[in-house]
Each structure stands twice: as C-alpha cells, then as structure tokens.
Design brief:
Keywords: Metal-binding, Oxidoreductase, Signal. The protein is mainly β. The chain has four helices and 29 strands. Bound molecules: CU-O-CU linkage and copper (II) ion.
Length: 463
Amino acid sequence: MLSRRTFLQASAALGGAFALGAGLAARAGTTPGPQVLTAQLAQAQITVDGVTPVMTYGLGDAPHAALPPVLRMRKGEAYAARLVNRLDEPTTVHWHGLRIANAMDGVPEMTQPYVYPGDHFDYLFTPPDAGTFWYHPHCNTLTQMGHGLTGVIVVENPADPNFDAEIVLNLRDWRLGAGGKYIDPFKPRHAARGGTYGTVRTANWQQEPVYDAPAGGLVRVRIVATDVTRIYTIGVEGAEAKVVALDGNPVEHPFLLDRMDIGPGQRVDLVLRMPDGEGARATLGNFRGSNPWTIASFRAAGPSLKRHHRDVAPLPANPVAEADLSTATRIPLELTATAEHKATPSICGSLGFTFWALNKVPWPGDTPDPIAPIEELKLGKSYVLEIANRTPHAHPIHLHGLSFRILSSNKRSFLPPPTDTILLLPDEQAEVALVADNPGDWVIHCHIIEHQKTGMTGYFKII
Ligand code: C2O
Ligand code: CU
C-alpha cells in the first residue's frame, strides 16, 4: 500500500526535521522548524528499461531518490522550511496557491535572490487557507520541474471532516526515450502551440499505480496536475466520486464527477466511495483525446465499511475576501500570440524564443530589471480582470499570492470556487474578481511552462 508506505517514510523524515528544528527554535525562541528541504540530484526508476537522473526534494540531509515529499502544514500555523540547494544550478521554491507574504513567494529577482548551489534560503509563512496546493522551483523551470521538482502541499484544517483514507496523486509526465534518457525538452513549433508533451505518464512517479483503500470507504483523493504541459480530462470509473474542492477551495455544493478538465497547476479533491467487494477496482482515467488511459486505480481492501457520501460533512470554506463589484476597477488582460523573436538569455533558463504575450507585451525573461507591471493595484481595493484568450489554445493562467473568483465566461456554465489558476479555453472570455489584499509584486503567467517561458508572463504590483 504505497500511500501508507510513502506516509511512513515522510513521517520518519519529519521526525528528523523536527529534532533539528527544536535546536533552531531554541535559538530563535519562537517559531518551530525549519523543515529542511534539500533540492538534490538522484537516480530514479521511472521507466522499466533504465534509470533516469532526476531532480527531487528530500527532507533533511539524507539522500532521497523518490518523488518530492508531501509537505503537511496547518491552516493558520507558522511553517518554516530551509531550502538547501544541492543541485548544480540556482533554484528557489514557489508555494503554488498559498496566499503568503510576497517575500516568501520564491520568484527570483522579483521577491528573493537566486539560491545558488551550496547555498540556502529560509522560508517562513503562515498558510491562511486549508486545502491541496503544491510547490516547485521558479527558476529554469522547464528543466527543473521537468526533471522532478514538483511536490504536493496539504494544508490541514483541524475542522476538516474525517475520511477513511487519503491518497495524494502528483500527476506528471516525463520526456524520456530509450533507456530512461531525456529527449529534447521541447520543440519550438509546439511551444508556439499547445506545448510539448511528455512521453511517459506517471502518478507519483509510477505508471498506472494501484492503491489499496478500505472497501465501501470514503477516500479523499487529492489530485494535483504538476505537469509542465498536459491538460487532463479526468473521470472515475467503477465508483462514484464527488468533487469537494477545486484548486484548494471547497466547492459550495459537492457534485458527482463526470468529466473535468484540469490544467497544469490545478488541483481537484475528490471523495471516492470505494466499491464494496474486496478486490473490486475503481479507476481514475484521462479521457482527453480519443484514447482514454488509466492514471491510477484503487483496489477495495477488507470488509466493506458501507459508507455513504452523505456521511461526511462539507469542507469548511477558506477566508477569501469577496470583491466589492460596485467599486471594482476593471482591467483588461489579453492573451495573444506575438511575433516570434529571440529572447534574452537568463540565469533561470531561457527557451530562446518569444511566442506569447500578456496585453501585447511579451515577458523578456527573468532579468534583474523586470518590465513594468501590467497594472498597479491599490491595497485593499477590488478589481475585475477581463481576461480574453485570443488564441486557439487553452492556457492555465496562474496568479501568485491572491485568489480570485470567476464571475462569468462565454465558455462555461459552472463557476468554481475561488482559485489561483483559471484554465482559459480557446477563445474564452472570462471576468474574474479579486480583492488586492496582499501587497507586493505578484506574477501572473500561463502554467504551460513553455508558454510562461516564451512570453506569457507579467505581474501586478499591489501597494
Ligand atoms: Cu505554480 Cu509561478 O507558479
Ligand atoms: Cu499557455
């Protein structure tokens, strides 16, 4: 039972981190921690026919050859992590979806310096929202994320209902060829379209893993799309699954999952009602395109617990401020393709081209002097972004440090709870509302990393 084993490994590592943390806390006097998060090089078995050199995070000092650990935090409680860089290139950590202080946001040259090899950086913040989030570098991301640096964050709320089991799924692809060796990380002609897909599809770094879960039980499945390109259309067969949270925030009225699109950066929390018969399987699949395939499956174990979806209370809402639409200022945000030009080289990796733009301005790369913000926002004021996707491709647009609510769209009827990432469909026009309640420079970008790195990036300055 991999989920339990992974959990036990993580707990063992956590024990070590807490022991180390105790000493530092004694010196600092106040906050516990930090948890040491070591970015490192390792070898892992991703395909059957070879060993792949990967980048991963481990807890503490010990070498770690598996996927980055699930980091567990508590809503409203301080969390401290020391990033130690044992890669051979600079890196940082961005805490995707956490509404924390700008200085902790992990964007090099904008919110913090690069963390060079052998160096470290101390993160300290208090997550205000409970739910499913994730972490990844914000430097040379096509390589660093593509080679393994994507991990899941679970922010717990003591008021959350209890489930019979929890399974965390980190979905991602790898661009590997024969012998588990990397092939070219991207093709420019794909970067200028939907992005370059991986060749090996995994959940928790495994192809089609199978998880045991209590028969007839209610299982919270936390699904995180951490791939650099792939948009999934998920569905469950062989069991009923209710959608209870999207992008970290509880849905007001949980509903049965049929098919749902989930773009890079996005999360879905399901409550899966396991089949009753011992050994019976439920399958999570990707139904995008004409050849559905299995992402992971769940095998019923033990005598049936005979549970019902109605047995669990809804998840408590997060404290996301609602925009005041009567005073909100409207800001247009246009996603477009741009004339192709050569991009400037960057310490955090440039793909060498510009194909995309926000409001007609292609991001020039992570330079010491960032370009002007898309707009300056006033702290505490409400805004409506009028986002227009003027391209024939879907773009998962992610805003750092803030959550926004989708008010309307010409392409969707279901309006999700507040989110940090909206998957804009081709030619979609959507209005999203937010309260600019977190000061600082907040990046907004497409989470198809080739799009992010070839121009589809900008930022808002909140002062
Ligand atoms: Cu998930 Cu700018 O990041
Ligand atoms: Cu995009």
